[in-house]
Specification:
- The structure is a homodimer.
- The first copy, chain A, is α+β, with helices and mostly antiparallel strands.
- Chain A has three domains: 4-109, 3-Layer(aba) Sandwich (Creatine Amidinohydrolase, Chain A, domain 1), CATH 3.40.350; 122-274, Creatinase/prolidase N-terminal domain (Creatine Amidinohydrolase, Chain A, domain 1), CATH 3.40.350; 278-571, Creatinase/methionine aminopeptidase superfamily (Creatine Amidinohydrolase), CATH 3.90.230.10.
- Helices cover 34% and strands 19% of the residues of chain A.
- In chain A, the strands form nine sheets. In chain A, strands 11-10-9-7-12-13 form a six-stranded mixed sheet. In chain A, strands 20-27-26-23 form a four-stranded antiparallel sheet.
- In chain A, β1 (17-20) and β2 (25-29) form a beta hairpin.
- In chain A, α13 (278-305) crosses α17 (534-557) and α17 (534-557) runs antiparallel to α18 (561-570).
- The longest helix of chain A is centred in the middle third of the chain and has 28 residues, at 278-305.
- Chain A starts with a helix and ends in a 5-residue tail after the last helix.
- Chains A and B meet through β20 and α16 of A and β20 and α16 of B.
- Chains A, B: Residues 4-102 form the Creatinase N-terminal domain.
Chain lengths: 575, 575
């Protein structure tokens, strides 16, 4: 019911903005989606390629094209304050006005718009969460005191799920549920439709306050989901002091809080959530072993079935899901599997459909980017394979992508470095010969939460809220290369930030490095070994030995012999 | 007369901000100056170390410490609009107000304040500038039309010098002069005290309009320097349309232009100036050969004199200046020479004084960062040498600095990449063992203009106005390492951006690389060759061969035999 841009434009990628004037219709999206958008948009729509030289931003386009004194409408609940503010200023300086349209205009023309989801919300046991929700509230209140805030408005769904150790399924792939929360120093308000809470979730939220927390404002008051805006207005009139509401929240809510009383900084919940505790880390590693078992089975199956000529993108994705479903605590995919053969793999966020479905053969590269939600962790892994004889160009590109992947995986860097500063490591081997990829290199990943989370990331585009990298964060490492209409390559592992044992420690800043927690062999057949340094070969051999030790044991324990045979063959050392 | 912060605090580094309340006095500066500031500030002052975790920004400190409803004063002529705006907003959100104090309060207590300089302004002949000022005006007007501006206010002194092909000497080291300029589509206004203009400069500005430019608004109207603000007010009332005034201009001037009529983007003059034309590039290269001749003579002299025990930091700097003075079209140093021995070299922007002066001996590292202004170019070069037996730690650090220098010098990258994305290349070899340096890696350099210029740069700190790197820009490449109270290392060359001949050219983006134009040997004695890859050794050997070919020829032509002998010995191949 919220996919309004897909309804109005036809383009259903995960990122994009539709802009409609009386005469024109335009859609902005980024490099991951250029090909997909070109295919999905009809002749009424103009595609605006974000971040490509010459493409105006939405604000620039509006300022240039609109007759003076124009009013630009936007639904204030679907635009963040941080997007609203500069756009409003830019339009104002050109004589236009950005105006909130509370009744969304797409909804007016959307017959049969689906009703909002209303799935059950369940507690996430401490054995997976690692920290009780009351302890989290206590920590968050400390952050509020440090910041001088008397109330915190939490609007991001994954932050609410993390904070209260609850999980839901209102949004496909993301185990979250529709809710808002407001934390004051004395009260906790949760805005949710109460009938969503399972009996266990109700109990989890209401169980007796432990001794430590007695009388310290640690019981939850439930309020109806739709009441958040009215409540905020009331709270402002009742509670003195500053209200902390992230600039990433909707304009609709942020604008309720008078500027003088606002702290617009990033939510402290997002920062805490990004740094995993030891139980979460253990769970993430465990889920990655299970995931690797499923992937080894999948690739072994592919090798056996593809020559028979009956495997296609969709059937392969289904089979992979079947292998994952057999793993303990599997909850579903963490995003829609990208199962892409040949030219389809050049569409960075490709989604196979009946129309685009393509056989997987020994003649083309096959790229599979998939992930799962387990109760103990979230995975996101991409492998690129060739089941026949790759061309020299494909091998060179693959090798350079792997070189970039290794350079990032083995980087050592000072604590609190912005993730952006590591992006070049992953691209250097491609740039050396005039190649590149038009997407970021790494995003944060939740623990049985959203497969993309902030605030940090690794990209040539800045992450303005990146607090700097610290131990315990988990990110993806996913360089790629895409040759339009021919093939696509991406190698993606998740990496955990841990302390590096450096020979020196300049100014006691502390140095960090990555531990790769995704444990699936990288196809050595696609490598051009002459392009690899001896350090890179050692990295690959060590990585494959770790896969063999850890995943091999799990495959054995689970009696998955074809997966095990495949793993043993694919992890033979190069060096 | 403008060095108010140095007058009031005692700290005279090139960057810093003094903040004075009724009870406290604080000084913010960055990592280059921590040691210098600690030495220069007395007990009345607290040093605030910029960009170090835990150090509040000025705004944060003010919001936290001031009693509510405070008024914070600042001279609106010495704060840029881009600094004013967020600070004013931050203070406002904390209930304070930022107020312009038109009569600078430091001046009130500054007895014997020097009077403003009033040096002669001369034309820069076309043979050095490469493009006439009228052609530059025509290009700038095209930028104004593209941007929809009817007037452009030029406030940066180096932009005015570049635009009109004039050079002065009002500011030490920087061949600029006090002036403002306003360009409209029909008129050119230059705000300058007319008596500063040499007869040649007056002629240069007034000579008959050439055929091409006839009747196209290409004659200059001179106005008194102090009239700029009044003029702007008048212009706004007379001229319709948008006024382009960079957010880098002073709050005093920007605030004169109503927000609705303002274009705050970076001045187009800064962008054009950063991209050198072929005559400027030729001149820069020529000046670097002359500079290298002087440096070869200097290092040969040092080697001969130091053992006699009579050389110190100050006398060495003087001698270096003497060698440079002998070169054609030498105009003076481009900044105050950093001649630093032993622990003094750890002070990143050290300046030797009678009190700190230290002998140069065979027992300590000697770092010399210096540069010159020639009529055909500006130089900036740092070399670090040891005339005795360096320790293994010194050698390791030196080698890692050189590795970083080579990694940046040989980087290949896509056109329009932000310079920031290359910073990590220069640090990787240091980070690998837990070392780093707390300053940027590269700044733009003018052509017989300021030795530091924007808008691009290479640093972990973002350059928000970086338009992306393009062919023709000239930057420094200067990684370092500093061991407090022990030694300092920096290797700095200037590099010119040029096209790279890559095997592929993904999406026709164009790939770039650097050509090093500083041609002075890097001391191989300080290297630990076992830490170098064969590619790094080839780079060094090629570089030294180029020095030998080009500078050797110049030394020979100039009959500088001791410099030549030194060059030949110092450029022997490692490989």
């Amino acid at each position: 019911c919220d996919a309004r841009r897909a309804f109005i434009s036809g383009f259903d990628g995960s990122a994009g903005t539709a802009l409609i004037t009386q005469k024109e219709a335009l859609l902005w999206t980024d490099g991951r989606y250029f090909l997909q958008a070109e295919k999905q948009l009809d002749h009424n729509w103009a595609l605006m390629k974000d971040a490509i030289p010459g493409t105006p931003t939405q604000g620039e386009w509006l300022c240039k094209k609109l007759p003076s004194g124009s009013r630009v409408g936007v639904d204030p609940f679907v635009i963040s304050y941080e997007t609203w503010k500069p756009l409003a200023a830019q339009l104002e300086s050109a004589g236009h006005t950005l105006v909130p349209i509370n009744d969304n205009l797409v909804d007016e023309v959307w017959d049969n718009r689906p009703s909002p989801p209303n799935k059950t919300v369940d507690p996430l046991p401490l054995v997976f969460a690692g920290k009780g929700w009351r302890d989290k509230i206590v920590e968050i209140r400390q952050e509020m005191i440090n910041k001088g805030a008397t109330a915190l408005v939490v609007t991001a769904l994954d932050e609410i799920a993390w904070l209260f150790n609850l999980r839901g399924s209102d949004i496909e792939f993301n185990p979250v549920f529709f809710a808002y929360s407001v934390i004051t120093l004395d009260n906790i308000y949760l805005f949710i439709d109460e009938n969503k809470l399972s009996p266990e979730a109700s109990k989890h939220l209401q169980i007796d306050v432990s001794l430590n927390h007695q009388n310290s404002g640690l019981s939850i008051e439930l309020r109806p989901y739709r009441m958040i805006k009215e409540f905020l207005k009331w709270l402002i009139s009742q509670l003195p002091g500053k209200i902390w509401i992230s600039h990433k929240s909707s304009y609709s809510l942020v604008s309720v809080v008078p500027e003088m009383r606002r702290i617009e900084s990033l939510s402290p919940v997002q920062l805490k959530k990004a740094v995993k505790n030891s139980v979460e880390i253990e769970g993430m590693k465990r889920s990655h072993i299970k995931d690797a078992v499923a992937l080894c089975e999948f690739f072994a199956w592919l090798e056996e079935e593809v020559p028979k000529g009956d495997v296609n993108e969709l059937s392969a994705a289904e089979k992979l899901e079947e292998f994952r479903r057999a793993q303990e605590d599997y909850m579903g995919p963490s995003f829609e599997t990208i199962s892409a053969s040949g030219p389809n793999a050049a569409i960075i966020h490709y989604r196979s459909t009946e129309e685009t479905n393509r056989p997987i053969t020994a003649d083309e590269i096959y790229l599979c980017d998939s992930g799962a939600q387990y109760r103990d962790g979230t995975t996101d892994v991409t492998r690129t394979i060739h089941l026949g004889t790759p061309s020299n160009f494909e091998k060179e590109c693959f090798t350079r992508v792997v070189k970039g992947h290794i350079a990032l995986a083995s980087a050592i860097f000072p604590q609190l470095l912005k993730g952006q500063m590591l992006d070049t490591c992953a691209r250097k081997a491609l740039w050396d010969v005039g190649l590149d990829y038009l997407h970021g290199t790494g995003h944060g990943v939740g623990m049985f939460l959203n497969v993309h989370e902030g605030p940090m990331g690794i990209s040539y585009r800045p992450y303005p809220d990146d607090p700097g990298l610290v131990e315990g964060m988990i990110l993806s490492n996913e360089p790629g290369f895409y040759e339009e209409d021919k093939f696509g390559i991406r190698i993606e592992n998740l990496v955990l930030i841990k302390k590096a044992n450096t020979k020196y420690n300049f100014r006691n800043r502390g140095y960090l490095t990555f531990e790769t927690i995704t444990l699936v062999p990288i196809q050595t057949k696609l490598l051009q070994p002459s392009l690899l340094t001896s350090e890179e070969i050692s990295w690959l051999d060590n990585y494959h030995q770790t896969c063999r030790d850890i995943v091999g044991k799990a495959l054995e324990e689970q009696g998955k012999s074809s997966g095990l045979q495949w793993l043993l063959r694919e992890t033979q050392p190069l060096g």
